[in-house]
Amino acid sequence: GAVVSQHPSWVICKSGTSVKIECRSLDFQATTMFWYRQFPKQSLMLMATSNEGSKATYEQGVEKDKFLINHASLTLSTLTVTSAHPEDSSFYICSPSTFEDNEQFFGPGTRLTVL
Amino acid sequence: RKEVEQDPGPFNVPEGATVAFNCTYSNSASQSFFWYRQDCRKEPKLLMSVYSSGNEDGRFTAQLNRASQYISLLIRDSKLSDSATYLCVVNPGYALNFGKGTSLLVTP
Fold first, then answer.
1. Peptide bond preceding A86: is omega within 30 degrees of 0, i.e. cis?
2. Which one of A52, A69, A72, B85 has the minimum C-beta count within 10 Å?
3. Structure confidence by residue, pLDDT tens digits, B33-52
């Protein structure tokens, strides 16, 4: 399967700080990047979709000014949680896609804890 | 109504048992269907795709009933290593919609 990396794997930060999460597809070019988050005992919820070189499309209820997504290249996308608050504590997972394969691959996830 | 609904469990079964999970989805235009497995604090990993004709992969059998919008997963001869959360996943043609998952614990 495809190799996807996410960095950092976990982060603890103070309320009000910004956190950047990087997602890299190491062995294929991702024309589309999906960003999900998962709260404890909940399903993965799609936050936004980005296509390389264009603005991200956000799902209803996800603030685009709070969750900044950059998809500047076919192998790298970043999600920045700005002015993080405790309610942003969650498991963030990226999923790069080419739409050529039936399987959708996921990064290993970033566990964010905001104190 | 949630788009993908699953019984959260937990299902506690002894080794060697057969266990079945069910899932329903609301979007009748959904195009593809999957079961993913998620271990604690890990990303989901594809277990198998699901087809109307039914498909089997070793001890795992998946079935799709489009008319009822119902998906099932059967695990035979459960192993300790099968303990995980099983996610029912539906693709309505855009991005994946995930169920909350069904937790399985296989005990010795």
1. no
2. A72
3. 999 999 988 999 999 999 88
